[in-house]
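Re-run with default settings, no changes from the original entry. Doing this only to confirm the output is reproducible before filing.
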Amino acid sequence: MFDRNGHAKGAIVAPDSRTTPGYARSILAAVGRGSTSLTVVRRAAELAAAFRCSWEAVHVVTPDAFDKNSDFDAAEALTHAAELGATVARIPAASVADGLSSHLEDALVTDIVIGAHRRTGLSARVRPRLPTELIDRGITAAIHLIPSAAQPLPKRGKKPVKSPGSGGAYAKAAGLTVVTAAVAGALSPWLSTGALSLLFLFPVIGAAALFGTRPGLLSAALAVLLTNFLFVTPHFAFRLSAPQSWVLAVVLGLAAAHTGFVTSELRRRVGLSDRNARENASLASFALQLTRVSDWDGTAAIVCSEVSNLMGGLQTVVVRDVDGALKCVAAVPAEPVFSPVDTTALEWAWQQGEEAGSGTKLLADANWQFQPLRTSLGTLAVLGLAAEDGRDPVRADQKVLLATLLAQAALAHERLRLEDDMRASGAAVTSAG
């Protein structure tokens, strides 16, 4: 699987890799979407075990993956990496190379594991793009390519530009062009045909920016026809063989295609930034609310309400030990009734400090999923999650978010326990004095 230097077969290795004997190694698994994700994670885990070093798995979220299910495969791979002992992270960036490069600037990584689909024909002679970009950017870590027997996934189609409707977008694009033709007709006594043709850049660029590339191309085609019919001699007759018509068609077509591409990329990047900004703002708000309460019940209520909102309206419950018995201290929307299987899963999560219930490997037949709030003082509470339709409450692409919420909730409970211990110690000192 790996050669005697620790490189995966077929690896591309950067020229100045830090592979000298005795150097502290650190492995990074670059997780993408598709059939190679889990393979990359497993190979990175094996490499880390072979060198007895730490490792992490990261997924770069790019604008072209901005849709509901785009990072499902990557999230599943990140979950598996966490189970194997890796540190996991999601990095928003304009491209995978940008995200990995910025991450590697702050992380000491000696080896990078990247998946690569097997290529056939002429493409098999071309070096993989991502490793080449990383090397060109000066990355000195050893790059391990993990080939996959599966064919690469087809590229996901770009999301259509939102508009009142495809017919409405085309109609508006045509309307802009017709209005421009009317303006050009009014100015024709004072302007030459070439100057009048330039006016049609405005509706073409506007239609491509507002409605997308295809409406922009429609506007360009209509502009060529109107210019040929109204302003090219002889007037009011089509002479499509006229050289100026072909030149105008090329110029307006390129303008529409370029404008549509640029605005589409900007929309996706803005959408990605907005999504990450909303998620980060929600997490910051959650942490701030937890700092404002200093009692167990209030903390549990905030945890339930915020986790329910951020996880898409799930039913939530917080259970902890009260006077030697597990008690539900907060719930959204109402205190649940647990089945025997749910109760068993709850007790396991409390006693063993491991997740159990629906969507997990233990007692998966339960209706609820229970996540222990583990701290340095032990398990202080258990968070329960359930979906109204009985499905697994946590999607694979939500598990990184859930892990962050659990960590913040655990820290809040740990703070409460330490405060209780300090008050008890102070009371004991006072009574002894």
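The radius of gyration is 30 Å. The chain has twelve helices and eleven strands.
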